[in-house]
Design brief:
Two copies of one chain form a homodimer. Chain A is α/β, with parallel strands linked by helices. Chain A is built from twelve helices and twelve strands. In chain A, helix 11 links the parallel strand 8 and strand 9. The model of chain A has no long low-confidence stretch (mean pLDDT 92). Chain A binds a DNA duplex through helix 2 and helix 4.
DNA sequence: CTGGATTTCGTAAACGTTTTTGTTGATCAG
DNA sequence: CTGATCAACAAAAACGTTTACGAAATCCAG
């Protein structure tokens, strides 16, 4: 409970001067500033967040909204933890804190977001898993809350976003598998109206078309983007008539890939031997046998880009990041493995 | 930006009365209270968090600390998301919010916690993955911050905690495997000094001793508690001389189990056929083939118990939860599967 | 020297809310 | 009818900080 008042009293200074010294304001003698800094350190003084944000009208906190409960979204895994880490290295430069705002499964996500915003929990927000049409975007824009989306959406208010290059993954994946003789290529799509599903399918369709291959809706496998989903797809494939089955598959979710490998082994279609797999790289996928042919990107760098793009839209920080409104597709690098062998002849 | 002042002005009331009406204080006419509630609703008024917590000296927020970065702890997964959900159902009854405080991999966890506490981010904290000796416990106790630990520790200040029954899992697991003829039983232990490692090993040792079986340190396999770790253990087992290899294994981490299954298949020791596995149940483990013999508990109920035990130590809420200082080991229920077959004869 | 600029600091207002204390009628017991 | 109790509200203080403003001291140019 050491407040700024005690600190000032102990130093024979006014609280105003102490505050300015702590905040690096110009009109304070450098010598006294050192005195203040030192005293604050030894007394363990840290400014009270409530008082500070009440006065400043800003909290110094950026929120990342995520839903709790039995996960069907695949959020909360190592993917986001790595992205967060990148975000935080940028935020640390500005004394900004990142917290995860946990929306209970019992509360409506839109209502939760409104509550969070109105209460002034955070100065800015990061949203992810954007839907085809996403109300959160409308709302945040209308309330003039700085935010950035990880993922595109048809709901477009000219807001900043970053997204993975799903088009590139579909195109490159199809190209590789076709070159190896595959004619029936399956892909994954989410069950809900997450935007990436639409993007991914459309790019997949276009890639097939360009190569004169038919687009077969039965080769689109919908599932939750987690281990269970990947496992179930493998079994669904095995349940198809042999001549209808795909011989290769493209997916993008890391957790899913683990389950898919598991499932393929179970149904007697071992990856890299009887079935070709291309997915996204991840620390968790690294140990897979055979080695996964995959698309790699640095999640930490993604987080850094995300943070910088967000700060570029916040008046108080924009000067340091003259990026304008960032709307960018992040490319991935192909890593050749052994999971996408040529199609079995005969 | 609709403040309580505008609301009061619009209603021809003083801000004090409006505040009391909103907060359910007694000395306000029921009719005017309705008027206030209605107006607040239509105007979309939500109390400003900064002003409120400045005045009240409390934030209405409970923080769960977790570390970001490439995860080696296995946190951030579906385990915690499910626990969170239970916590939140209790918190919702008291207008308490749960947020995840994300400690960057570049910041010292202890320093981060001190900063969080001093700044007044949260009224109380939940910590997990407790270490054998855990400085966080000392610190929180010395600062008189209400908190609860998910996990025991040798650092004991009489604080509340909940923990899974690792002793029970070790004892039951060993008993089952021994009954099926297994003589060499391996177990998992974490690489760091997480407390559960000590507890688990000790219980395992005791269970063997009671059955006259030798305790062999080579049967303790240390790894990170994630898919990769489980995978690596399977390969480590296969690399042992055949007569030194365990024929069965007990582990408790859900992610790890997935990697372990994968690895066992890879090394030609398919679970349930040539190698016995017992682990903890989880949504992710449900699809495993063969069906996992496992220990089940409701993570949601665990979260509820956690929240109630925490509130019992917070003066403002203790009256509703006369539990005293909760220090409890949560039992798990055995679910019989097909992964722990009898040891192969010959 | 002198007047204005500059440096350094103190004073006080302000942020939005909750809560304590007062104040006004109305009600009630005697 | 009178004094006390009570219900319902208003007024104002308080939470801890930042910042606009002003004041004193110092400096410098002329």
């Amino acid at each position: 409970m050491t407040g700024i008042r005690e600190l000032a009293q102990r130093l024979n200074l006014s609280i105003g001067t102490v505050s300015r010294a702590l905040n690096g304001k110009p009109d304070v003698n450098e010598q006294t500033r050192q005195r203040v800094l030192e005293a604050a350190n030894t007394m363990g003084y840290v400014p009270n967040q409530a008082g500070r944000s009440l006065r400043k009208g800003a909290t110094g906190v950026v929120g990342f909204m995520m839903q709790t409960g039995a996960q069907i979204t695949g959020e909360g895994d190592v993917f986001f933890m790595s992205v967060f880490d990148g975000v935080q290295t940028v935020f640390a430069r500005h004394q900004l804190d990142l917290v995860a705002l946990l929306c209970s499964s019992e509360e409506d996500p839109d209502a939760y977001m409104q509550r969070v915003v109105a209460r002034g929990f955070a100065d800015a927000l990061i949203i992810s898993a954007t839907k085809r049409e996403d109300h959160r975007i409308d709302y945040l824009a209308s309330r003039n809350i700085p935010f950035i989306a990880l993922g595109r959406s048809q709901t477009d208010v000219g807001h900043p976003w970053l997204d993975l290059d799903f088009e590139g993954m579909a195109e490159t994946g199809v190209a590789r598998l076709v070159a190896k003789g595959h004619r029936r290529i399956g892909i994954f799509a989410p069950l809900d109206n997450t935007n990436l599903g639409f993007v991914f399918i459309e790019a997949y369709r276009k890639a097939l078309e360009q190569r004169g291959l038919p687009f077969d809706p039965d080769l689109i496998f919908r599932a939750h983007p987690n281990e269970r989903g990947g496992h179930d797809i493998a079994h669904a494939i095995a349940a198809m008539p042999p001549n209808k089955q795909p011989t290769g598959f493209i997916l993008t979710n890391e957790l899913m890939t683990l389950g898919f490998y598991n499932g393929l082994y179970e149904v007697g279609l071992p990856p890299g031997q009887k079935f070709a797999v291309i997915s996204r790289d991840s620390p968790q996928a690294h140990f897979l046998v055979p080695k996964l042919t995959s698309f790699r990107l640095s999640l930490r760098d993604l987080g850094i880009a995300l943070a910088e793009a967000l700060l570029a839209t916040m008046p108080a920080y924009a000067a340091h990041y003259p990026l304008g409104v960032v709307r960018k597709i992040v490319p991935l690098e192909l890593v050749e493995g052994d999971s996408d062998m040529p199609v079995a002849t005969g």
